[in-house]
Amino acid sequence: MLERDQAVGLRNGRGHRGDDLRRLNTAAVMKHVFHHPGTFRSEIAAQLGLSAASVTNITSVLINDNLLEALPSPVGGQGRPRVPLQVDHRSSAVLGIHLGPRTTGVVLMGLDGKERAAVLVPHAGMGPGESIDLVVAAAENLVDTYAGTCTILGTGIATGGIVDREAGIIVDNPSAGWQNVRVMDLLRGRLPSPVILDNNARAAAQSELLYGNGRRTDDFVLMVITADIGSVMVDSGRIRSGFSQTAGQIAHLRVSDEPRECPCGRTGCLAVMASDDAVTRTAIEHGLPARNIDEVLALASAGGAAAIEILEQRNRYVGRAASSLLDIHDPELLVVAGTPAETPAFFGSLIAEVGKYAHAGHGAAGRVVLSSDHVFSLSLFAGATLVDALLADPLGVLGFGEGEGSLS
Ligand SMILES: [Zn+2]
């Protein structure tokens, strides 16, 4: 399945070409088991076009390094028992960190995307250096507590705004007021490595790819509607970041003729009509006893008609923006993540608006779904970026790819 020429493009692939091929084949095996838990070595060999000996070698390494585990063989049958394999969710974990504007979430996540332990670090009013020191201390605590029970394979970090993933820099996170923060330099050697920095929306798309609707299709657009608003295009399983890492800025799509002013200087932008803060502000203007989005959601779930109408109207605004995305990108699915996913009862108003506004009409409306992640956890999404890196190059993440001949 893997051609030798593909090995040339492998990142950090400084070793012999044979080593590069081995890394690619190891990645293919790891990915296959991740997506087909309970599979057998013979199936892997047949699916990937590898020899039985290669698959045995690769799976032995992955089992030794706690990335895969062998399950008990089914009883009965003739000949040598076939051993089902799955990803080792107990022995391996990653750190996920959501660097928030006021509070940062640090989570220890299994490779199944589930939370093992978590801690919240408040840092309101502090600068980036001081905040990151507190986050590192909390992460070190978590690592010390759990290092004896599992291997921590690395750290995924996500934050809002514009992030240069390759350079490891927060270019502009407006809600935190952080500009040009060299996160990787501040963190070097202080967290389980490798460390990946990405933005919230791309991390959410990564999680959706690995654990959510990505199991149905690798061709979708994800909209994230929370305090922050963004979108991500996933094309053949690849997240498109854009030429200047800023793809998916939908916050200033005009969705209303209301004269509500946006910090960008215009009016009626999605950000000021449909973000969590916008919903809260509308609720307060209507005299509702709510100080934040959770309290608006609580009023709605208690049957409050005014709160319900405010959330339905928000979904209509999101539906108008979704229509534009569907018309521009024509994805197989448009996935809505964030607060609207917490109120599936009001999803109909979003769908109806798409039917009205999208040029593709009702056919497009049928392709709009809510995120399958019931818990919207930005720190788990951050962890998913590291799991993706692990599946792309398990030996690299394990540190085998760092020098000549290290895979021999
Ligand atoms: Zn605007």
From TrEMBL:
Gene3D superfamilies: 3.30.420.40, Winged helix-like DNA-binding domain superfamily/Winged helix DNA-binding domain (1.10.10.10). Keywords: Kinase, Transferase. GO terms for molecular function: kinase activity. It comes from the Bacteria. Belongs to the ROK (NagC/XylR) family. This is NBD/HSP70 family sugar kinase. It comes from Paeniglutamicibacter kerguelensis.
